[in-house]
Amino acid sequence: MTPTDIVAERLGADALPILPAAQAGGPEYLRALHGPFPTAPFVPVGGVDAEAARIYLAHGATAVGVGSPLTSNFER
Questions:
Q1: DSSP assignment letter at 47
Q2: pLDDT tens digit string along 16-42?
Q3: Contact by Cβ (8 Å): 37, 65
Q4: Would the pTM of this model clear 0.85, i.e. be above it?
Q5: d(CA 28, CA 59)
Q6: Are strands 42-44 and 16-18 parallel, antiparallel or unpaired?
Q7: What residues pair up with 18 in beta bridges, in sequence order?
Q8: Quick one: residue 2, left, alpha or beta (phi over 0 = left, psi -120 to 50 = alpha)?
Q9: Rounded Cα–Cα distance for residues 18 and 42 (Å)
C-alpha cells in the first residue's frame, strides 16, 4: 500500500499484499489502485471471506488471502 510496494512490483515482485484489506478500503480501494497501477499484482488479505473474495477478484486482484473465515467454525 505504499510507493515502495509499487517499486517492488516494478522490480519483479510476484504479489503485493493489501493488508488488512477490509480496513484499507475494501474492493473499491483495490479498484482505485488499479487505475494508476493496472499491472500490479495486488493480493487482498485480512477480512476476506468468500463473498469478498469474489468481489476482489472481479476488481482485478491477482489472488486473495482467506484465513479466519476458513477456521472460525472449528472449536479449539
A1: S
A2: 889 899 888 999 999 998 888 888 899
A3: no
A4: no
A5: 8
A6: parallel
A7: 44
A8: beta
A9: 7
Q: What length is written for the chain?
A: 76
State the Cα–Cα distance between residues 39 and 46, nearest whole angstrom: 22
Start-end of H helices in 1-76: 3-10, 21-24, 26-34, 50-58, 68-71
Cis peptide before 20 (omega within 30 of 0): yes
pLDDT surpassing 80 at residue 75: no
Phi and psi torsions of 37, nearest 5°:
-130, 65
CA–CA gap between residue 16 and residue 2 (Å, rounded): 10
